[in-house]
UniProtKB/TrEMBL annotation, chain A:
Record keywords: ATP-binding, Metal-binding, Nucleotide-binding, Nucleus, Transferase, Ubl conjugation pathway, Zinc
Family as reported in the entry's similarity comment: Belongs to the ubiquitin-activating E1 family.
Active site positions: C169 (glycyl thioester intermediate)
Protein's recorded name: SUMO-activating enzyme subunit
Gene3D superfamilies: Ubiquitin activating enzymes (Uba3). Chain: B, domain 2, Ubiquitin-activating enzyme E1, inactive adenylation domain, subdomain 1, Ubiquitin-like 2 activating enzyme e1b. Chain: B, domain 3
UniProt domain THIF-type NAD/FAD binding fold: residue ranges: 6-421
Automatic annotation (TrEMBL), chain B:
A Pfam family recorded for this sequence: ThiF
Molecular function in Gene Ontology: NEDD8 activating enzyme activity
Keyword 4Fe-4S: no
Protein name: NEDD8-activating enzyme E1 regulatory subunit
Pathway participation: Protein modification; protein neddylation
Alphabetically ordered keywords of this record: Ubl conjugation pathway
Region (Disordered): 1-20
Family membership noted in the UniProt record: Belongs to the ubiquitin-activating E1 family. ULA1 subfamily.
Organism: Hypsibius exemplaris (Freshwater tardigrade)
Gene Ontology biological process terms from the UniProt entry: protein neddylation
Signal sequence extent: none
One Gene Ontology CC term in the entry: cytoplasm
Entries under InterPro entries matching the protein: APP-BP1, ThiF/MoeB/HesA, ThiF_NAD_FAD-bd, Ubiquitin-activating_enz
């Protein structure tokens, strides 16, 4: 018997909540059932997609389009009819999954793919005082750790790798990299066919700080106000503010008219802002008729780049399938026209569309638009395959890594149920790599990095007893909406926040009842009488007793692209590093591995704790042994 | 079976083995229904294509894997290969499905009890992916090894999961070693996992090392690169153009200036730091003499330490050049060695003048598109002409060896040439060397301290060997019967100690592995009672899955040669036995 009878009993009677039924989730459900767990509730918002089938083995092609949670539960019951499996096909971020709901479980297991839900479940488990096992995978890397309230580091103790965001002016006025044009293309999709977001304006921005006198930082570009279209040199645009959507509707989504607006008139308008081009290369306008007349005619089309530019993990040899070919400008124009027509038809049939990387037409549209815009700005055009990766934030995923991670989750889960907190670890797995130098042929390499769970970080906004934080921002310009999205939801990780002044007035600034629809959201904080030193009380209405007091410090000298800065946070040069989401945690992994060593035997009374610092791994800067952070850095270059 | 059949085996394997094998119906009918469209595959496999590329996928789809043992470990491995679209598999297992299998093996159901385990596993595995073909045999491994050794030669790779007999493994190894087919042996035993890779010679074409320094030939630029650099006149440029010169050109230009001033290139770290300052001073200044922020110059400064003075043949490649297989080409030489020889001849000859062929890859850099494309074209043209020169040598070698001149195609040579710095050859020891007389194991069991996880994992290895000896002697696994648990533990300890003595472990190891320690491990292993823990099988399945994909695709360096996993402490260690 691998498990003693008592452990086996705890496993059989434990009530667990599994959040996520994707790559790790499928492996996990199988592992749970085959380890003896019999009472499982699982939740997943997603439906099954074709690209899941290479690893999510509980699903078959005939299940595409069906809810993951339902099919996973069904497969689980086939495997183990005596088990009790309850499923929810919905978001875990909901009032119905409250603290009371979480309290019923002995253990919560995260198998999620996004930071927002992870952070939310983390909060709920802290509030309900339930142990949580957190996990993630990316390509050949995986990790898994247990979280005990107040005793070990929680999910939010390690600041997440910052999301790569771009200043609005770069996106709207002065793109210089393919990604800028891709982001713009996605925004354009939403403007034309989806839920329009004022933050995603795609028209030229007249409030660009580059238009101001050199060396003087404007703040106006942060106000997100819709652009006044002025009089464009071609005289086509009207003098009143008119949204891109309205223009599209007024021309009946005529693809040629849209092309001319986007790649001729708007570019011409940008050109008229001469200040922008003093130190930059000027964009060129595209002539759609000329492009369509002469398919091979090239205005300023950069030569296709070899798709095999990197030597990193992503470096594949020149692809032989169509997706990896870089389209010519004529092709981009034609795809643009075709996809606009297709999307217009869908819009009429279905109402507002949501951009999806796996929707052929939507992906065609973004590819063509990004490439056409790149052509205007002399930026390299890319293949549909590469654009999909960047636009869809695609993270490579294979069955084997998920299998390993799910194996580790069970190791931690069993220790949790045995009440053996010190038998739980923070585990990182990576593939065995080329790391045997000839000089040391017998060197031992580990494919897993195991460290003890860290203690909670003091001042962590999620797990500290009393939370008081300070934030630097520009009170005169940051809007309520920006404050809610970036600070309260983004940084404080609140799902449905209530924010009020921490003074006698108790004036409400943000109310969860409004669900983001409040009137004054475009007003700056200063509008509410908020000033340097004002304190705000922020509460998450989905959580009991969770409150953070934020003291606002005005700072007009923040870097141009920085909306706010936590006072205790230190800013590093890598702020703009792309995110590798599941591995946010890995960056915090200590080089010094402290290992709790168990003598063989699962019976806890024989435990001997030996703290060994693994100097082999610690002194090795080149990523052998357990130096996993190297890999994380490697990976981030790929996206 | 004739040696020549190895190249077209899947059909012949089926015919030859018809006596004991049933073609699995679901696999057949699905195969007949038709291959799915390439587009569908691209979508289905998108997330992994981004990891190993189309060529990796093509290799996987061509591969034929033999799995011995449809245990929880075995089926987990195949699951991780069938999902991404392995070509075909054949399961060899003579066992019937028992109650015990249901508790740990996902690929058997209650309805299968009493039926062949190989049949159930094949059917359920094939349900996961209609692109994959699968079949099974219910012969015992013993009879196949004894009577039809040629059967195993049909496969790209053979995996032996949870084979309890060392002798059988050894016999299997003796069949595969001479024909160069890799064997992956593995086991999930209680809370311990064990993986052993056996390959006589495995060629890696894309090793993807952790720390890769790109050789841009900055210190020894080729003429075309010099010409491009000379065409750039920093003095006669607009501000805008100046801030868009690719960093490669900046470094080339400043290296030349430096050399003129100092007589030699910067080689020491201190020199490079000074050189970096020298480059930094090249930034344009405004009217007040304050340097402008030029992103390309920043990039150039950052790149100095990693790109200047690194143009040399990597040690790993030098070792390949010195390998006897590179010198002693014959008509039987693998393509790999013929190409390595051609690359060596290129490198030491006039064309390479001490350098490997140029890869043609450039890092991303800040630049205007035009300059970047120019630069890239120069590197690409050089990479193409280098590859062509290597190809000419390959053709000559083929002719000299009496092989057809097009035995190796130009596109193959280009692939090798582009990856010249990433070629590796991995040779593990044979199972004979580890399990046979005069074992090499003791050398791998050195250099531990008592609190070292590697020491604990080495003891698990010793215990697994003892389990095999126990099984060999008694025919059962230790601790299987509850009432003999104590006895079995004592006997297991004796086997472990005998084993350590027989292989001659060093004194240091014997001291660490004292009587009490070994007794404790033996009791723990006896307590496992031969049980398979699913989460351990899942770990071993995932890790073997990764290793098999490496062996099939030639990407990354495979494990050499043993990995031990301790599920209690979640640690892994690798050993060379
Ligand atoms: Zn925390």
């Amino acid at each position: 018997m691998a498990f003693d009878p008592q452990t086996a009993h705890s496993i059989a009677t434990a009530k667990v909540f599994m959040v996520g039924a994707g790559g790790i989730g499928c492996e996990l459900l199988k592992n749970l059932l085959l380890t003896g767990f019999r009472d499982i509730q699982l939740i997943d918002l997603d439906t099954i997609e074709v690209s899941n089938l290479n690893r999510q083995f509980l699903f078959r092609s005939e299940h595409v389009g069906k809810p993951k949670a339902e099919i996973a539960a069904q497969s689980g019951l086939e495997l183990c009819p005596e088990a009790k499996i309850t499923f929810y096909h919905e978001s875990v971020i909901q009032a119905k999954f409250n603290v009371k709901f979480f309290s019923q479980f002995d253990l919560v297991l995260n198998a999620l793919d996004n930071a927002a839900a992870r952070s939310h479940v983390n909060r709920m488990c802290l509030a309900a005082d339930r142990p949580l096992i957190e996990s993630g995978s990316s390509g050949y890397l995986g990790n898994c750790k247990a979280i005990f309230k107040g005793k070990t580091e929680c999910f939010d103790c390690q600041p997440p790798a910052p999301q790569k965001t771009f200043p609005g002016c770069t996106i709207r006025n002065t793109p210089s990299e393919p990604i800028h044009c891709i982001v713009w293309a996605k925004h354009l999709f939403n403007q034309l066919f989806g839920e329009a977001d004022p933050d995603q304006d795609v028209s030229p921005n007249t409030a660009d700080p580059s238009l101001l006198v050199d060396g003087q930082n404007g703040t106006g570009h942060h106000n997100g106000a819709p652009h006044q279209n002025g009089s464009s040199p071609t005289g086509i645009a009207s003098t009143v503010a008119i949204s891109t959507r309205e223009q599209a509707v007024s021309c009946g989504y005529n693809a040629i008219t849209l092309f001319e607006k986007l790649f001729r008139d708007d570019i011409a308008y940008l050109l008229s802002m001469e200040k922008l081009w003093e130190k930059r290369r000027k964009p060129v306008v595209l002539d759609v008729q000329a492009i369509l007349r002469e398919p091979q005619a090239i205005l300023q089309e950069p030569q296709p780049l070899d798709s095999d530019r990197s030597n990193g993990d992503g470096g594949s040899t020149a692809g032989d399938h169509e997706d990896k070919r870089v389209w010519g400008i004529g092709e981009n124009a034609r795809v643009f026209i075709r996809s606009v027509r297709g999307l217009k038809a869908s819009l009429e049939k279905l109402g507002n569309l949501v951009w999806d990387k796996d929707d052929e037409v939507a992906m065609d549209f973004v590819t063509a638009v990004a490439n056409l815009r790149s052509s205007c700005f002399g930026i390299a055009t890319l293949s549909r395959y590469d654009i999909k990766q960047m636009a869809g934030n695609i993270i490579a995923a294979v069955a084997s890594t998920n299998a390993i991670v799910a194996g580790f989750i069970i190791c931690n889960a069993v220790q949790v149920l045995r009440g053996n907190q010190s038998g739980c670890y923070n585990i990182i797995t990576r593939m065995f790599r080329d790391a045997v130098p000839a000089t040391a042929p017998k060197r031992r390499i580990r494919t897993t990095g195991v460290s003890r769970l860290d203690v909670p970080r003091p001042g962590c906004v999620s797990c500290s007893e009393r939370v008081e934080i300070g934030i630097k921002l520009r009170i005169a310009s940051i809007t309520v909406k920006e404050f809610e999205e970036k600070v309260v939801k983004g940084y404080l990780k609140m799902s449905a926040p209530d924010v009020e002044l921490d003074d006698a007035s108790g004036k409400i600034i943000i109310s969860s009842d409004d669900a983001g629809e409040g009137k004054n959201r475009d007003k700056p904080l200063a509008f509410f009488g908020i000033q340097d030193g004002t304190r705000l009380k922020c509460e998450d209405s989905l959580l009991d007793d969770y409150e953070v007091t934020v003291t606002l410090h005005n700072d007009d000298h923040l870097a141009e692209d920085t909306l706010f800065l936590p006072l205790d946070a230190h800013v590093e040069g890598e702020l703009a590093q792309p995110t590798v989401e599941p591995f946010e945690q890995a960056k915090g992994i200590k080089r010094k591995l402290e290992e709790e060593i168990l003598t063989p035997g699962m019976s806890g009374n024989k435990r001997v704790a030996l703290l060994a610092s693994n100097s082999d791994a610690a002194s090795e800067p080149n990523g052998n042994g357990n130096g996993l952070s190297e890999d994380v850095i490697d990976m981030s270059h790929r996206f | 079976m004739k040696r020549g059949d190895v190249d077209h085996p899947s059909a012949t394997a089926a015919e030859e083995a018809s006596s004991a094998k049933r073609q699995c119906t679901s696999g057949l009918s699905l195969a007949v229904v038709m291959e799915q469209s390439a587009d569908h595959k691209t979508k289905k496999y998108d997330r992994q294509l981004r990891l190993w590329g189309d060529h990796g996928q093509a290799a996987l789809e061509k591969a034929r894997v033999c799995l011995i043992g449809a245990t929880a470990t075995g089926t987990e491995i195949l699951k991780n290969l069938v999902l991404p679209g392995l070509g075909s598999f054949c399961i060899v297992d003579s066992e019937t499905v028992k109650m015990g299998d249901l508790g740990s093996n996902f690929f058997v159901t209650a309805q299968d009890i009493g039926g062949f385990r190989a049949e159930a596993a094949t059917r359920l595995l094939l349900e996961m992916n209609s692109d994959v073909k699968g079949q099974y045999m219910t012969d015992t491994l013993e009879s196949l090894v004894a009577n039809r050794p040629s059967f195993f030669q049909h496969f790209t790779i053979v995996i032996a999961a949870d084979v309890p007999s060392e002798k059988l493994l050894l016999d299997l190894g003796r069949i595969l070693w001479p024909v160069g087919i890799p064997l992956v042996a593995c086991r999930a035993y209680g809370l311990v996992g064990w993986i052993r890779i056996v390959c006589r010679e495995h060629f890696v074409t894309e090793s993807k090392p952790d720390n890769f320094i790109q050789d841009l030939r900055l210190d020894t630029p080729f003429p075309e690169l010099v010409a491009l650099k000379d065409s750039v006149d920093f003095g006669a440029m607009t501000k805008k153009a100046h801030s868009h010169v690719p960093f490669v050109i900046i470094l080339l230009a400043f290296l030349e200036k430096w050399k003129t001033l100092r007589g030699s290139l910067p080689t020491t770290y201190q020199d490079k730091v000074k050189f970096r300052e020298f480059v930094d001073e090249g930034r344009l200044k405004n009217d007040d003499g304050i340097p402008l922020a030029e992103e390309n110059f920043e990039e150039a400064c950052k790149a100095v330490v990693k790109t200047v003075g690194v143009s040399k043949v990597p040690d790993e490649i030098e070792r390949l050049f010195r390998d006897p297989a590179c010198d002693n080409l014959t008509i039987f030489s693998p393509k790999f060695w013929i190409v390595i020889r051609a690359i060596r001849d290129f490198t030491v000859g006039a064309e390479g003048a001490g350098h490997l062929p140029v890869s043609g890859a450039l890092p991303d850099m800040f630049s205007d598109t035009e300059s970047f494309v120019h630069l890239q074209n120069v590197y690409k043209a050089k990479a193409d002409s280098d590859a062509a020169a290597v190809y000419a040598k390959v053709c000559q070698l083929n002719r000299d060896l009496g092989l057809s001149e097009d035995f190796i195609s130009l596109s193959e040579v280009k692939y090798y040439s582009r990856n010249a710095a990433f070629l590796r050859c991995v040779r593990t020891t044979s199972l004979e060397e580890e399990l046979g007389e005069g074992s090499s194991v003791a050398a791998g069991l050195t250099g531990f301290s008592v609190d070292d996880p590697d020491f604990r994992n080495s003891l698990w290895y010793v215990m697994l060997r003892a389990v095999s000896h126990f099984h060999n002697q008694t025919g059962v696994l230790p601790g299987l019967e509850h009432k003999t648990y104590e006895e079995d533990a004592v006997q297991l300890k004796v086997f472990a100690q005998k084993f350590m003595k027989a292989v001659g472990v060093v004194d240091g190891f014997r001291e660490l592995a004292g009587d009490e320690v070994v007794a404790r491990y033996a009791r723990e292993v006896a307590r496992f009672g031969g049980e398979q823990v699913h989460s351990v099988a899942a770990f071993v399945g995932g890790t073997v899955g990764q290793e098999v994909i490496k062996l099939i695709t030639g990407q990354y360096v495979p494990l050499n040669n043993t990995l031990v996993y301790d599920a209690t402490a979640c640690t892994t260690s690798t050993f060379q036995f």
